[in-house]
Design brief:
The chain has about 325 residues and is an alpha+beta fold. It has helices at about 5-15, 25-30, 35-45, 70-75, 80-85, 95-105, 155-170, 245-260, 270-275, and strands spanning about 50-55, 60, 85-90, 110-115, 135-145, 175-180, 180-185, 190-200, 205-215, 280-285, 295-300, 305-310, 315-320, 325. It is built from nine helices and 14 strands. The longest helix has 19 residues, at about 155-170.
């Protein structure tokens, strides 16, 4: 029995959620024996997939089952993407990026994807913690591009566009991008993307990069922590549709991989610019070690730099890094 048969059976059951498919029907559809079907179903159930089996009726996935399983994700990938990626799903990891860095340093191939249902030590930008309760989707993808360090920002840009498309497919509502790596729905953050890279000193190119989006699907049962009140949001206010996390993971990978493979065309750039949420807003710029200052956002340029006009000045500053937070405009007396 191959992993392909498991994936195909899970895909067939997923497409007929709540309905029974007989072993013979599955065997005929997939061109395998009924014994192969039985073994694949047994293996899936051993992996924790809640497949119901009823004599003389066949097999079914419960309509409300929430399945986040490697086969469930792989079954939803396009054929080209499925051939290129290897998906692994875990109940909990300290952090998917950290786990994937270890695998990358041990020569893991491009296309390895780690997904966790929760993180105990998730990280965001600048080493800050990333709240990662059960119910979210936390994933990291390993790539080995021939990029210079200066081009690495485009990985985050591609990921932001892919994540925005995937979220819209799932929840049907508009998603905006807050420079450089946050996704907004109704003015609140529903996804953050942490991109990390290692440099090959001799070639001047990246040795590898890890693209790590983390999605909030629903609010945590106990509510958001105090420091995230008014900031964090979620794609759904109540229970998401069945299979939402697997669908979201697959949708992100299906959108990201073609953008990555055709990087040099930069097809993603116009959409990234059009989705920007900050132009026209007044913000506080926090440029690393320098003092923070107020500014008005003018836009984002084609090098993905944030263009701002500092308060009281008639000049434009192009930011390649740093943090910005929306704040009220100063009152002029």
């Amino acid at each position: 029995m191959t992993a392909v048969v498991k994936s195909q059976i899970l895909a067939a059951l997923e497409s007929a959620r709540g309905q029974y498919l007989s072993g013979q029907e599955l065997a005929d559809r997939l061109g395998v024996s009924r014994t192969a079907v039985w073994k694949a179903v047994a293996a899936l159930r051993a992996d924790g997939v809640p497949i119901e089996a009823v004599t003389n009726r066949g097999y079914a996935l419960p309509a409300g089952a929430d399945i986040l399983h490697a086969d469930a994700v792989t079954a939803l990938l396009s054929p080209e993407v499925a051939r290129a990626l290897q998906v692994e799903v875990y109940d909990r990891l300290p952090g998917t990026n950290a786990a994937l860095r270890t695998r990358a340093a041990d020569h893991a191939p491009e296309g390895l994807v780690l997904i966790a249902q929760a993180q105990s030590a998730g990280r965001g930008r600048s080493g800050r913690s990333f709240f990662s309760p059960p119910g979210g989707l936390y994933m990291s993808l390993l790539v080995r591009p021939e990029f210079s360090a200066r081009q690495a920002v485009y990985l985050t840009v591609m990921a932001a566009v892919a994540a925005a498309r995937a979220c819209e497919q799932l929840c049907g509502e508009s998603i905006r991008i807050k420079w450089v790596n946050d996704l907004w729905k109704d003015g609140r953050k529903v996804c953050g993307i942490l991109t990390e890279a290692a440099m090959d000193v001799e070639s001047g190119l990246l040795d590898y990069a890890i693209v790590g989006p983390g999605f909030n699907l629903v609010p945590p049962p106990e509510g958001w922590p105090a420091e995230l009140q008014g900031i964090a949001g979620s794609l759904f206010t109540a229970a998401p549709p069945p299979g939402a996390r697997a669908r979201l993971a697959a949708a992100f990978l299906n959108e990201f991989w073609p953008l990555y493979r055709s990087f040099r065309r930069k097809d993603f750039l116009p959409e990234y610019l059009a989705r920007q949420a900050l132009p026209g807003r007044h913000v506080e710029v926090r440029p690393g070690r320098a003092d923070a200052y107020g500014a008005t956002v003018l836009g984002v340029d084609e090098e993905c730099r944030l263009l701002v006009r500092p308060d009281g000045q008639n000049r434009t500053v192009a930011l390649s890094s740093g943090e910005v937070q929306i704040v009220p405009e100063p009152v002029v007396l």
